[in-house]
Design a protein that fits this description.
Strand order of the largest sheet: 1-3-4-6-7-8-9-10
Number of helices: 1
Order of helices and strands: HEEEEEEEEEE
Low-confidence stretches: 7-25
Number of strands: 10
CATH topology: Porin
Largest sheet: 8 strands, antiparallel, barrel
CATH architecture: Beta Barrel
Mean pLDDT: 83
Oligomer: single chain
Shape: elongated
Structural class: mainly beta
Helix content: 10-25%
Radius of gyration: 22 Å
Distance between the termini: 46 Å
Strand content: over 45%
Length: 200
C-alpha cells in the first residue's frame, strides 16, 4: 500500500464535515427555531362551491407554495410548530353540460402542528400532525360571456406529513418534507417542500 499516511489523512479530512454536522446537531437538541420554505402544492378539485354539480371533468392543478414557520423543540424528539402557509393560485379549465370555463383558487392561512422526531446524528426523520386554518378565494369564469362567480370561505382542516432533515453549520437545519392536507371539496391535496430553519 503506497503512502498509507496520506490515505489516513485524506480519510480523516473527509470525516471532518460529518463530524462537524453531528456536533452541530448535538449542540442544540432543544430550543426555538425559525424557517422558510418553498414547494409545490397539488390539488384535485372534487367540486366547486356555488356551482353545485354542473361542473364535471375538473382538471388537477398545481402552483408554487411558500411558508414561514417558527417552533420550539421541547425535547430532542418532540417539537411544536406554527406557520403561515400560502399555497399559491392553482387553477385550470373545466367542462359543464352548458358553457365551459376556468377556475382559479387562492389559498392561504396558518398552521399549528406537533412534530415527532427521530435524531440520527446529523440526520433526523420526523412526522407531523396538525391543523390548517385558511381562507380560500374562488373565481369561476364561464365561456360565452356568462357572468363570473367569486366566493370566499374560511375553513380549518387536518394536515399530516413527514420528512427528513439535516443540521449543518451547527445551527442550520435543511428539510425535505411531504404534507397531506385534507382540504374540503378536494379528492387530493398535498405539498412537497424544501425548507431551511435556523436553530437558536
Amino acid at each position: 500500500m503506497k503512502n498509507p499516511s496520506r490515505m489516513v489523512t485524506a480519510a480523516a479530512l473527509m470525516t471532518l464535515p460529518l463530524a462537524a454536522m453531528a456536533q452541530g446537531a448535538l449542540n442544540n437538541p432543544t430550543g426555538p427555531y425559525v424557517g422558510v420554505g418553498v414547494g409545490q402544492f397539488n390539488v384535485g378539485i372534487d367540486r366547486l362551491d356555488d356551482v353545485d354539480d354542473a361542473v364535471a371533468n375538473i382538471r388537477d392543478s398545481d402552483d408554487t407554495a411558500m411558508k414561514i414557520f417558527a417552533g420550539w423543540r421541547l425535547l430532542p424528539f418532540l417539537a411544536l410548530e406554527a406557520g403561515y402557509v400560502d399555497l399559491g393560485n392553482p387553477g385550470d379549465d373545466f367542462e359543464t353540460s352548458g358553457s365551459d370555463g376556468s377556475y382559479r383558487l387562492a389559498i392561504s392561512g396558518f398552521t399549528v402542528a406537533a412534530l415527532a422526531r427521530v435524531p440520527l446524528g446529523p440526520v433526523e426523520l420526523f412526522g407531523k400532525v396538525g391543523q390548517y386554518f385558511y381562507d380560500v378565494r374562488t373565481r369561476i369564469d364561464f365561456d360565452g360571456g356568462l357572468p363570473s362567480i367569486r366566493g370566499k370561505d374560511s375553513r380549518d382542516d387536518f394536515m399530516w406529513g413527514g420528512g427528513v432533515s439535516m443540521v449543518v453549520l451547527q445551527h442550520l437545519e435543511l428539510r425535505a418534507e411531504y404534507e397531506k392536507l385534507e382540504l374540503k371539496n378536494t379528492d387530493k391535496s398535498d405539498a412537497f417542500w424544501l425548507s431551511a430553519a435556523w436553530r437558536f
